Amino acid sequence: MRAALQRHWPEYLMEAAELGLLMISLCSFVILMGHPASPVAHIVVNPLARRLCVSLAVGLTLIALIYSPWGQQSGAHLNPAVTLGFWRTGKVAPWDAFFYIVAQFLGGAAGVGLLVLILRGFMAHPEINYANTAPRDGEIVSAWLAEFFMSACMMFLLLMASNSSRVSRFTGWFAGALLALLIFVEAPLSGMSINPARSFASAMPTHFWKFLWLYFTAPPLGMLFAAQLFLHISDAKAGCAKLHHHNEKRCIFCLHHRGSYHAQ
Description:
Blueprint: H1 2-34, H2 39-43, H3 47-67, H4 69-74, H5 80-88, H6 94-118, H7 120-124, H8 140-162, H9 171-190, H10 196-203, H11 212-233
Helix pairs in contact: 1-3, 1-6, 3-9, 5-6, 5-11, 6-10, 8-9, 8-11, 10-11
Protein backbone atom coordinates (compact mmCIF):
# COMPACT_ATOMS: atom_id res chain seq x y z
CA MET A 1 0.00 0.00 0.00
CA ARG A 2 2.68 2.51 1.03
CA ALA A 3 4.77 1.74 -2.05
CA ALA A 4 1.82 2.30 -4.37
CA LEU A 5 0.96 5.57 -2.68
CA GLN A 6 4.54 6.82 -2.81
CA ARG A 7 5.04 5.94 -6.47
CA HIS A 8 1.65 6.70 -7.97
CA TRP A 9 0.18 9.52 -5.90
CA PRO A 10 0.28 11.95 -8.87
CA GLU A 11 -2.04 9.67 -10.86
CA TYR A 12 -4.40 9.39 -7.90
CA LEU A 13 -4.61 13.17 -7.58
CA MET A 14 -5.16 13.48 -11.33
CA GLU A 15 -8.09 11.06 -11.16
CA ALA A 16 -9.60 13.10 -8.33
CA ALA A 17 -9.18 16.37 -10.21
CA GLU A 18 -10.56 14.95 -13.46
CA LEU A 19 -13.78 13.68 -11.91
CA GLY A 20 -14.10 16.92 -9.97
CA LEU A 21 -13.89 18.85 -13.24
CA LEU A 22 -16.40 16.53 -14.89
CA MET A 23 -18.87 17.12 -12.03
CA ILE A 24 -18.34 20.89 -12.28
CA SER A 25 -19.06 20.72 -16.01
CA LEU A 26 -22.13 18.54 -15.52
CA CYS A 27 -23.66 20.66 -12.77
CA SER A 28 -22.84 23.93 -14.56
CA PHE A 29 -24.57 22.86 -17.74
CA VAL A 30 -27.57 21.50 -15.82
CA ILE A 31 -27.88 24.95 -14.19
CA LEU A 32 -27.35 26.73 -17.49
CA MET A 33 -30.05 24.70 -19.25
CA GLY A 34 -32.50 24.21 -16.38
CA HIS A 35 -32.43 27.03 -13.83
CA PRO A 36 -35.26 29.58 -14.24
CA ALA A 37 -32.79 32.46 -13.80
CA SER A 38 -30.64 31.27 -16.70
CA PRO A 39 -31.23 33.24 -19.93
CA VAL A 40 -30.33 30.14 -21.91
CA ALA A 41 -33.20 28.24 -20.29
CA HIS A 42 -35.59 30.86 -21.70
CA ILE A 43 -34.13 30.47 -25.18
CA VAL A 44 -33.96 26.67 -25.25
CA VAL A 45 -37.40 25.78 -23.92
CA ASN A 46 -37.83 22.29 -25.36
CA PRO A 47 -36.91 19.65 -22.73
CA LEU A 48 -35.40 17.35 -25.35
CA ALA A 49 -33.25 20.15 -26.73
CA ARG A 50 -32.08 21.01 -23.21
CA ARG A 51 -31.16 17.42 -22.49
CA LEU A 52 -29.36 17.18 -25.81
CA CYS A 53 -27.27 20.24 -24.97
CA VAL A 54 -26.35 18.86 -21.55
CA SER A 55 -25.50 15.43 -22.97
CA LEU A 56 -23.27 16.90 -25.69
CA ALA A 57 -21.53 19.20 -23.21
CA VAL A 58 -20.78 16.37 -20.78
CA GLY A 59 -19.66 14.05 -23.56
CA LEU A 60 -17.28 16.68 -24.93
CA THR A 61 -15.98 17.37 -21.43
CA LEU A 62 -15.20 13.69 -21.00
CA ILE A 63 -13.33 13.63 -24.30
CA ALA A 64 -11.34 16.72 -23.31
CA LEU A 65 -10.40 15.17 -19.97
CA ILE A 66 -9.32 11.87 -21.52
CA TYR A 67 -6.99 13.64 -23.97
CA SER A 68 -5.80 16.24 -21.47
CA PRO A 69 -2.26 15.90 -20.02
CA TRP A 70 -3.70 14.58 -16.75
CA GLY A 71 -5.97 12.12 -18.52
CA GLN A 72 -3.11 10.90 -20.68
CA GLN A 73 -1.11 10.07 -17.58
CA SER A 74 -3.75 8.67 -15.21
CA GLY A 75 -5.69 6.85 -17.91
CA ALA A 76 -8.84 8.89 -17.21
CA HIS A 77 -11.02 6.22 -15.67
CA LEU A 78 -13.09 8.86 -13.82
CA ASN A 79 -15.36 6.12 -12.53
CA PRO A 80 -14.90 3.47 -9.82
CA ALA A 81 -16.81 0.96 -11.93
CA VAL A 82 -14.42 1.50 -14.87
CA THR A 83 -11.45 0.98 -12.56
CA LEU A 84 -13.02 -2.24 -11.28
CA GLY A 85 -13.55 -3.41 -14.84
CA PHE A 86 -9.90 -2.85 -15.73
CA TRP A 87 -8.88 -4.46 -12.44
CA ARG A 88 -10.85 -7.55 -13.45
CA THR A 89 -8.79 -7.81 -16.65
CA GLY A 90 -5.66 -7.89 -14.51
CA LYS A 91 -4.33 -4.55 -15.74
CA VAL A 92 -4.74 -2.55 -12.53
CA ALA A 93 -2.95 -3.58 -9.35
CA PRO A 94 -5.23 -3.98 -6.31
CA TRP A 95 -3.79 -1.03 -4.38
CA ASP A 96 -3.88 1.19 -7.45
CA ALA A 97 -7.54 0.25 -7.91
CA PHE A 98 -8.24 1.06 -4.26
CA PHE A 99 -6.58 4.48 -4.37
CA TYR A 100 -8.14 5.30 -7.74
CA ILE A 101 -11.59 4.60 -6.35
CA VAL A 102 -10.95 6.64 -3.20
CA ALA A 103 -9.61 9.51 -5.30
CA GLN A 104 -12.62 9.40 -7.63
CA PHE A 105 -15.08 9.62 -4.74
CA LEU A 106 -13.15 12.46 -3.12
CA GLY A 107 -12.70 14.33 -6.39
CA GLY A 108 -16.34 14.09 -7.40
CA ALA A 109 -17.46 15.26 -3.96
CA ALA A 110 -14.97 18.13 -4.05
CA GLY A 111 -16.24 19.28 -7.45
CA VAL A 112 -19.85 19.40 -6.29
CA GLY A 113 -18.83 20.90 -2.96
CA LEU A 114 -17.00 23.73 -4.72
CA LEU A 115 -20.06 24.59 -6.79
CA VAL A 116 -22.25 24.46 -3.70
CA LEU A 117 -19.99 27.05 -2.05
CA ILE A 118 -20.02 29.28 -5.13
CA LEU A 119 -23.56 28.71 -6.44
CA ARG A 120 -25.48 27.44 -3.43
CA GLY A 121 -28.80 29.01 -4.43
CA PHE A 122 -28.56 27.70 -7.95
CA MET A 123 -27.48 24.19 -6.99
CA ALA A 124 -30.22 23.88 -4.36
CA HIS A 125 -33.05 24.99 -6.65
CA PRO A 126 -35.67 22.22 -7.10
CA GLU A 127 -35.12 22.26 -10.86
CA ILE A 128 -31.43 21.49 -10.32
CA ASN A 129 -31.37 19.57 -7.01
CA TYR A 130 -27.57 19.24 -7.09
CA ALA A 131 -27.87 17.17 -10.31
CA ASN A 132 -28.99 14.20 -8.23
CA THR A 133 -29.62 10.88 -9.93
CA ALA A 134 -32.88 9.12 -9.09
CA PRO A 135 -35.01 6.52 -10.90
CA ARG A 136 -38.39 7.43 -12.30
CA ASP A 137 -41.24 6.76 -9.89
CA GLY A 138 -42.09 3.06 -9.77
CA GLU A 139 -39.28 2.11 -12.14
CA ILE A 140 -36.67 0.79 -9.69
CA VAL A 141 -36.15 -2.55 -11.41
CA SER A 142 -36.11 -1.00 -14.89
CA ALA A 143 -33.67 1.65 -13.74
CA TRP A 144 -31.34 -0.94 -12.20
CA LEU A 145 -31.38 -3.02 -15.35
CA ALA A 146 -30.78 0.06 -17.47
CA GLU A 147 -27.79 1.10 -15.35
CA PHE A 148 -26.39 -2.43 -15.53
CA PHE A 149 -26.82 -2.65 -19.30
CA MET A 150 -25.43 0.83 -20.00
CA SER A 151 -22.43 0.21 -17.76
CA ALA A 152 -21.73 -3.09 -19.47
CA CYS A 153 -21.92 -1.41 -22.87
CA MET A 154 -19.53 1.35 -21.83
CA MET A 155 -16.96 -1.04 -20.37
CA PHE A 156 -17.14 -3.39 -23.34
CA LEU A 157 -16.66 -0.47 -25.71
CA LEU A 158 -13.64 0.77 -23.75
CA LEU A 159 -12.03 -2.66 -23.78
CA MET A 160 -12.71 -3.38 -27.43
CA ALA A 161 -11.54 0.03 -28.61
CA SER A 162 -8.47 0.36 -26.38
CA ASN A 163 -7.29 -3.11 -27.38
CA SER A 164 -7.49 -2.46 -31.11
CA SER A 165 -4.29 -1.19 -32.69
CA ARG A 166 -6.38 0.43 -35.44
CA VAL A 167 -8.79 2.48 -33.32
CA SER A 168 -7.24 2.63 -29.85
CA ARG A 169 -6.30 6.29 -30.29
CA PHE A 170 -10.01 7.10 -30.73
CA THR A 171 -11.16 5.36 -27.53
CA GLY A 172 -11.82 8.68 -25.81
CA TRP A 173 -14.02 9.88 -28.64
CA PHE A 174 -16.03 6.66 -28.54
CA ALA A 175 -16.45 6.98 -24.76
CA GLY A 176 -17.61 10.59 -24.96
CA ALA A 177 -20.03 9.87 -27.79
CA LEU A 178 -21.55 6.90 -25.98
CA LEU A 179 -21.87 8.88 -22.73
CA ALA A 180 -23.66 11.70 -24.54
CA LEU A 181 -26.02 9.24 -26.21
CA LEU A 182 -26.82 7.48 -22.95
CA ILE A 183 -27.50 10.73 -21.11
CA PHE A 184 -29.88 11.87 -23.83
CA VAL A 185 -31.73 8.58 -24.19
CA GLU A 186 -31.76 7.15 -20.70
CA ALA A 187 -31.65 10.05 -18.20
CA PRO A 188 -35.45 10.14 -17.68
CA LEU A 189 -35.51 6.50 -16.55
CA SER A 190 -32.62 6.14 -14.09
CA GLY A 191 -31.03 9.58 -13.97
CA MET A 192 -28.19 8.16 -16.09
CA SER A 193 -25.28 7.66 -13.73
CA ILE A 194 -23.22 4.52 -14.54
CA ASN A 195 -20.83 6.02 -11.98
CA PRO A 196 -21.10 5.44 -8.21
CA ALA A 197 -18.81 8.38 -7.41
CA ARG A 198 -20.86 10.72 -9.59
CA SER A 199 -24.12 9.78 -7.83
CA PHE A 200 -22.48 9.97 -4.40
CA ALA A 201 -21.13 13.45 -5.13
CA SER A 202 -24.59 14.80 -6.00
CA ALA A 203 -26.27 13.05 -3.07
CA MET A 204 -23.78 14.29 -0.50
CA PRO A 205 -24.99 17.91 -0.06
CA THR A 206 -28.56 16.83 0.71
CA HIS A 207 -27.79 13.41 2.21
CA PHE A 208 -30.22 11.93 -0.30
CA TRP A 209 -29.08 8.33 0.05
CA LYS A 210 -32.38 6.60 -0.77
CA PHE A 211 -31.39 5.28 -4.20
CA LEU A 212 -27.63 5.24 -3.81
CA TRP A 213 -27.64 1.45 -3.51
CA LEU A 214 -28.83 1.29 -7.12
CA TYR A 215 -25.81 3.21 -8.40
CA PHE A 216 -23.44 1.37 -6.09
CA THR A 217 -24.49 -2.03 -7.43
CA ALA A 218 -25.63 -1.86 -11.06
CA PRO A 219 -22.67 0.02 -12.64
CA PRO A 220 -19.90 -2.01 -10.95
CA LEU A 221 -21.65 -5.30 -11.67
CA GLY A 222 -22.33 -4.26 -15.26
CA MET A 223 -18.71 -3.33 -15.91
CA LEU A 224 -17.36 -6.41 -14.18
CA PHE A 225 -19.70 -8.48 -16.36
CA ALA A 226 -18.40 -6.74 -19.49
CA ALA A 227 -14.80 -7.31 -18.44
CA GLN A 228 -15.49 -10.99 -17.86
CA LEU A 229 -17.24 -11.25 -21.22
CA PHE A 230 -14.29 -9.57 -22.94
CA LEU A 231 -11.85 -11.99 -21.34
CA HIS A 232 -14.03 -14.89 -22.43
CA ILE A 233 -14.38 -13.94 -26.08
CA SER A 234 -11.05 -12.18 -26.72
CA ASP A 235 -8.26 -14.13 -28.33
CA ALA A 236 -5.59 -11.89 -26.84
CA LYS A 237 -4.92 -10.65 -23.35
CA ALA A 238 -6.31 -7.25 -22.43
CA GLY A 239 -3.94 -4.37 -23.06
CA CYS A 240 -3.17 -1.42 -20.84
CA ALA A 241 -5.79 0.20 -18.61
CA LYS A 242 -5.27 3.64 -20.14
CA LEU A 243 -7.94 5.07 -22.41
CA HIS A 244 -5.29 7.05 -24.27
CA HIS A 245 -1.86 5.48 -24.63
CA HIS A 246 -0.48 7.46 -27.58
CA ASN A 247 1.40 10.00 -25.49
CA GLU A 248 4.68 10.71 -23.74
CA LYS A 249 3.31 10.33 -20.19
CA ARG A 250 4.40 7.56 -17.86
CA CYS A 251 2.08 4.58 -17.43
CA ILE A 252 1.65 3.01 -13.99
CA PHE A 253 -0.20 0.06 -15.50
CA CYS A 254 2.27 -1.31 -18.03
CA LEU A 255 5.27 0.58 -16.60
CA HIS A 256 6.12 2.27 -19.87
CA HIS A 257 7.38 5.81 -19.65
CA ARG A 258 7.27 6.69 -23.31
CA GLY A 259 4.33 6.86 -25.66
CA SER A 260 3.06 4.76 -28.55
CA TYR A 261 0.44 2.09 -28.24
CA HIS A 262 1.45 -0.83 -26.12
CA ALA A 263 -0.74 -3.91 -25.75
CA GLN A 264 0.20 -6.69 -23.43
